[in-house]
Amino acid sequence: MSAGLSLERSCLAGGGEAGERLRALDWSVNSLGPVERWPLSLQSAVRIVLNSAFPMMLHWGPDLVTIYNDAYAPSLGRKHPGHLGQPAREWWSEMWDQLTPIFDQVLAGQPYLVEDARYTPDRDGTPQDAFFTHCHSPLWDDAGRIAGVFLVVTETTRRVTAERDLTQLNESLERQFAAVQASEIRLRESEQRLDALIRSSSEVRYSISADWGELHQLAGGGFIPDTDAANANWLDEYIPEEDRAAVRAEIERAIRTKADYRLEHRVNRVDGTVGWAFSHAVPLLDPQGEITGWLGAASDVTDRRRAEAALQALNATLAEQVQQRTQERNGLWEVSRDLFMVTDGGGVILSVNPAWTTVLGWDQGEFIGRTTEWLEHPDDQVKTREQVAHLAGGRATLAFENRFRAKDGDYVHLSWTAVPSDGLLYCSARDVTENGRQAGLLLQAEDALRQSQKMEAVGQLTGGVAHDFNNLLTVIKSSTDLLKRPDLSAERRARYIAAISDTVDRAAKLTGQLLAFARRQALRPEVFDAAVSVRAIADMVGTLTGARISVRQQLSDEPCFINADPSQFDTALVNMAVNARDSMEGEGELTISVQPAAGMPAVRAHEAVSGAFVKVSIQDTGSGIAPEKLGRIFEPFFTTKEVGQGTGLGLSQVYGFAKQSGGEIMVESEVGTGTTFTLYLPRAAEKQARARLEEDAPAIDGGGACVLVVEDNRDVGTFVTQTLSELGYRTDWVLSAKAGLDALARDPDAHDVVFSDVIMPGMNGVELGQEIARLYPRIPVVLTSGYSHVLAQDADHGFELLQKPYSVEALSRVLSRAMRKRRNGSTNRP
Question: What three-state secondary structure class fits 414?
């Protein structure tokens, strides 16, 4: 480690043996160079690797220099530690052909994940088969380029080998079972006779008192002595002495648990012999849940027991062989860390291996005879039931994850594989909880890298926006200074005033682009034909692009009505056209298309949407966009231009406008061929559109009407009242919404219109307008704002809205329109 970098600040700090050996290396002769010159992204990744308890490795730089941690070292054999810090090709030479495609894929930007992959590493002097589950992810340097590979790996050689041995053992058992099929055929006839005998045997039905003290034989029978009266000594009469203890124990259990009595035991038969009976009794319960008696039945199973004994003797040799094979299989069943389970078709558990207790903490007996519903996380129960039904339908489950509750209350994440066979479900699950935790750590590391890149991008945005605004302020400042000169001619004075006005318009457009991306501008939607709007601004687009770019139009013959803000729609088209012009470097062909669409295709993380849409496309023949940049072109802090040449807000405005209008923006590009931007907007039904205000219409005299001005900013309030006075209005200026309501309460008829700012302390302008509409519905309200999250969420809330900064003419027009509504009998509609 370089002497110029303290151990506490070094990315090689800690890390156990691996960290110590890495610090001892002379990095000045390594292709990575001294540690203090390493990129921050590399240092962050090295810290993660060295301080992780999970096997991790990274390769960096053109030579793919290798760094790993102590957890990874045991899987390397004799390669550790001699190849630490060396190029990957030198120490994986025996398997480089296997690794090259993986590294190529990851360095191209695509992650690589594989489970139980087979390799032949030379770890102890001889190449040997080994199996690994590993995930390779790309690593980016500080400039955003892929410079390395990040590897998380688990060796699975022992498990894969054990599963292979288990498969071979099962195949051997199947061959053994096939060999005995011939003997089973010989036994089939005797089994059929035994089955007929069992089916024809009669049952004895009986009732017993609650404490099993008295028995009454009700019906059937013939194989045990009959009795017509209560018999308190029935146990001694029916049950041989050697089975009485077992019978009494089962009786006590059934009474204690109020559960069914089930037992197969010896019985004294009518013919004087001792046979076997299977008895099953169920309790009768009163409304309080107390036992009032029992009803039961006993079947003579003597012949079956004798047949079973004969069959056991006949297959003694086979039983020994099966037992031996079963012991071998059970050995794997017992030692496996995976959860094995066998259930019936309904999911009722028949058997589980000890891993269930190891992983979940419950005793094995607690699982038997139950489904897994009591273990399942509530959020996973529906999909788990669906998987059980899927299996019961004869289809296998190859990859399914859910969560089971452990005895300590925590939930364990399990990955399942299951197959149905002969009415049973054979299931295997692996605990993947730790995998999820490690994946989370990896995501945190990646988030940290992305955050550092985003902060750099914010710096670029700040520089670009500050430069543009300072340019605009310079024009305004210079113009005002020149206007102060006493000898200024009228022509030059008019020129400077026009420059100030134009600069304010450009500043307003820049803030509008910022708000558009953030979806915070207050839109004024109206229904209009997109094709007509495109045709109207075609000449302006041609002027923007220049004479060497041919502009073509492909407009639908049928109307393509949309409900959007016309001004923002025009701005979006202009921004896409300017972007296309820059891509073609001033020469090429630009095609604008407007067509109806039956749906919107999937884009980014959103699924396809069906319905009526209008798609507006701008296609250029420019240089195209590199694939690695496509995902960032709509970010406001991303631009390929130098600082001062643009803020990168053009396409971000298009993105924000599309989103806020209920649509989407899509891009298709091929480097060297060109790019197509397609704006999808919901199609609207044709209806009467509101007439747009003419921007060059002259101001209208106020005719002495009184305007109640509600403005908390004294500079703005002074300007507004002076402007209104010049326009022929009388004014009454108050500093708050409350003061405005007080003025109306004193004399409602004294004011013809209310002109209010939106952002004010206490009650805002929208709330004030709603209160005026409730109390004084005949008084029109006009709102004004440069930005308000309230307006961004719900446009103008039904009131007239004048965006800041506004011209004197625009103020005159909106007040005049509000006054006309009052004269025509219209009311506010909050």
Answer: strand
Torsion sign over Cα 187, 190, 193, 199: negative
In a 13 Å sphere around the CA of 185, the CA atoms on its Cβ side amount to 5
CA angle 498, 502, 508 (to 5 degrees): 150
Q: What is the DSSP letter of 93?
A: G
Identify which has the larger pLDDT, 610 or 509. Answer: 610
pLDDT at position 561 is 92
Alpha-carbon span 113 to 115, nearest angstrom: 7
- Angle, to 10 degrees, between the axis of helix 765-775 and the axis of helix 737-746? 20
Q: Is the pLDDT of residue 283 over 50?
A: yes
Average pLDDT over every residue of 194-206: 56
Taking the C-alpha atoms of residue 417 and residue 334, their distance in angstroms, rounded to an integer, is 18
How far is Cα 626 from Cα 137, in angstroms, rounded to an integer?
Answer: 21
Query: Are the C-beta atoms of residues 139 and 147 closer than 8 Å to each other?
Result: yes
What confidence score (pLDDT) does residue 454 get? 46
Q: How many CB atoms lie within 10 A of CB 722?
A: 11
Q: What is the mean pLDDT of residues 355-359?
A: 87
Mean pLDDT estimate for the chain: 78
Tens digit of pLDDT for each residue in 73-102? 887 777 788 778 889 888 778 788 888 899
In DSSP notation, 266-315 reads EEE-TTS-EEEEEEEEEEEE-TTS-EEEEEEEEEE-HHHHHHHHHHHHHT
pLDDT band at 755 (very low <50, low <70, confident <90, very high): very high
Distance from C-alpha of 688 to C-alpha of 340, rounded to nearest angstrom: 69
Other beta carbons within 10 angstroms of residue 42's beta carbon come to 24
Among 655, 664, 621, 619, residue whose Cα is nearest residue 636 = 655
229-264: string of b/e by CB count within 10 Å (b at 16+)? Answer: eebeebbeebbeeebeeebeebbeebbeeeeebebb
Residues contacting 362, CB < 8 A, separation 6+: 356, 406, 407
Q: In what order do the strands lie in the sheet with 56-60?
A: 65-68, 56-60, 146-155, 130-140, 112-119
Nearest to 706 by CA among 779, 763, 773: 779
**Cα(816)–Cα(573) distance, integer angstroms:** 31
Helix pair 16-24, 40-50: axis angle to 10 deg: 140
| Predicted pLDDT of residue 825 | 56
Q: Is the pLDDT of residue 491 over 90?
A: no
* 342-356, 600-614, 718-732, 777-791: the lowest-pLDDT one: 777-791
CB atoms within 10 A of CB 47: 18
pLDDT of residue 167: 77
- Per DSSP, 77 falls in state G
| Structural contact between residues 208 and 251, judged by C-beta atoms closer than 8 angstroms | no
CA dist., res. 341 & res. 355, Å (int): 10
